[in-house]
Amino acid sequence: MTHVLSPYAVDIAALRSLVGSGDERRLHSLDLTDEDLLEEIDEVDESHLGWTADPVRSTLRGLVLGEEPDRRPAHLYGYCLEVLCRILPCSTPLPSRAWTGIDFLLFMHVKAELQKAGSAFDPATLIRTGPPVPLPPAGETRRIGHLEAEQVPEILADLDRIDEASIAPDVLTPIRQLHGWLRECARTGRGLVTYYH
């Protein structure tokens, strides 16, 4: 089974100010017109767990209004957090072609090559740090990670020093793409939020 790592450059402070805010006005201002996106998530959930009562919109409502989690599947909160990362103006999806159709071995391989090239960064950090806002635990069904904006410059400086000539060609593109994510976050003063699914 293969996975995708989906990265977003996010103003994490702005995201945190929305999630759990209880602000009905901000909830109603969200652009939830991407029916394909919402239906795609609904279908994924229905096919696995049988939850059919418009789960995305009701879970988004719960996230923004700070409602106590109910009986809906916990992984829906992770999907809905990604919906917010796709639609909020404080968030930008980043290119991730080199991180599509992957398994965890890529993280291990990238880590080994980065170490060989002089970097201490472990890319598994991107799926092990957890979401930037509190969510119900969803087990292994959705791994979410994040880097605060304040963490980005140090990691970027670390990657800026690597010797690309020493990196195996098969992981050079994923490493360059990761480097690009951090550059964009540094340029915009944003953090990085990633979803491995």
What do these coordinates show?
Helix content is 50%, strand content 13%. Strands 1, 2, 3, 4 and 5 form a 5-stranded antiparallel beta sheet that branches. The protein has helices spanning 12-18, 24-29, 35-49, 55-65, 75-87, 104-116, 125-128, 152-160, 169-188; strands at residues 3-10, 91-93, 100-102, 143-147, 191-196. The protein is elongated and about 50 Å long. The chain has one domain (3-196): Hypothetical protein yfbM fold (3-Layer(aba) Sandwich), CATH 3.40.1760. It contains 9 helices and 5 strands. Helix 4 packs across helix 5, helix 6 packs across helix 9 and helix 8 (152-160) runs antiparallel to helix 9 (169-188). Residues 1-197 form the DUF7691 domain. InterPro entries: DUF7691.
Major sheet: size, sense and barrel closure?
A: 5 strands, antiparallel
User: Helix/strand-derived class?
Assistant: alpha+beta
* Helix/strand order: EHHHHHEEHHEHHE
Task: State Rg.
Answer: 17 Å
The geometry reads as elongated
Helix content: 40-55%
What's the quaternary structure here? single chain
Tally of helical runs: 9
Beta strands, count: 5
End-to-end span in angstroms? 10 Å
Domain DUF7691: 1-197
Protein name: DUF7691 domain-containing protein
Pfam family, one: DUF7691
InterPro entries: DUF7691
